[in-house]
Design a protein that fits this description.
By secondary structure, the protein is of the alpha+beta class. It has seven helices and eleven strands. It has a six-stranded antiparallel beta sheet with strand order 1-2-11-10-7-8. The chain has a five-stranded antiparallel beta sheet with strand order 3-4-5-6-9, with helices on one face.
């Protein structure tokens, strides 16, 4: 699945795909590509018995729906107080994700079949000359720029907390017993803290949004090599998913690839 839109003399091209992986029966990931708004989303649901799928779908639909509803809005009548010290696009991103969190939490409290459900989310919005990234959980956004590969987001996971506090060695990271424990996600509490990153995109940049079904199976060096050497974004998504499955495919795998090209 692919789409694109013009941006200040450039063209921003997108492709995305999702795969159940080799070990799971259900795909609890969801993703979204730009339609009328310049928005992309990856959400990785959790909760089991298909409730993770409910949570990730709710996140994508709520965030995308909020952006559509506020696209041409002049009067700001949003469900959360805006921070007037922040750019309009940042407030939209934070509010959309907080609204998704509240809806998921309320549904988990109301519906016994959805008790304990939640989802990670990573979302990107191209706003004129800036890329606004909103993020909760351990789904990631990477950037390849002029040969430099960076993880833009920081995992909200127990493993990452231990890495920062205990300065774990690569060997200790490899055998860490609680790699899948998330310390922040949508739906866990009535409110959530949203991480925001703002980047100034450039011609030739490649961004990758993904669930941990990719990042947990494919190393950063391999991801970077594919981003640098595969010019076709549809093929890039196919190859990333294939590599994750080749390496075990222990989880659902979702990727959204973005490239800034000449118009």
């Amino acid at each position: 699945m692919s789409t694109s839109f013009p941006l200040d003399g450039l063209r921003v091209r997108f492709s995305g795909d999702t795969n159940v992986g080799m070990k799971r029966e259900h795909n609890e990931d969801s993703f979204y590509l730009p339609q009328t708004e310049r928005l992309s989303i990856v959400a990785d649901g959790m909760g089991g018995h298909a409730s993770g799928e409910v949570a990730s779908k709710m996140a994508v639909e709520t965030i995308a729906g909020f952006f559509k509803e506020t696209q041409d809005e002049q009067e700001i009548t949003w469900p959360y107080k805006i921070d007037r010290g922040h750019h309009h696009a940042i407030n939209r991103m934070v509010t959309a994700i907080k609204l998704a969190n509240l809806k998921i939490h309320e549904e988990a409290q109301r519906n016994p079949a959805c008790k304990g459900m939640g989802t990670t989310v990573v979302s990107s919005l191209f706003d004129d000359d800036a890329l606004v990234i909103g993020h909760v959980g351990d789904s990631r956004l990477y950037r390849l720029r002029e040969g430099m590969f960076d993880q833009m987001t920081e995992d909200h996971s127990l493993l990452n907390d231990y890495i920062k506090m205990k300065h774990l060695t690569p060997e200790e990271i490899a055998v860490f017993p609680h790699k899948n424990v998330i310390v922040r996600a949508l739906g866990m509490k009535p409110t959530v803290q949203v991480d925001i990153i703002v980047d100034q995109p450039r011609l030739g940049d490649v961004y990758l949004l993904c669930s941990d079904g990719l990042s947990g199976m494919v190393g950063d060096a391999e991801i970077a090599q594919l981003l640098a050497n595969e010019p076709d974004l549809d093929n890039l998504c196919d190859r990333l998913i294939a590599d994750a499955n080749k390496n075990g495919g222990l989880d659902n795998i979702t990727v959204v690839a973005v490239r800034l090209e000449k118009e």
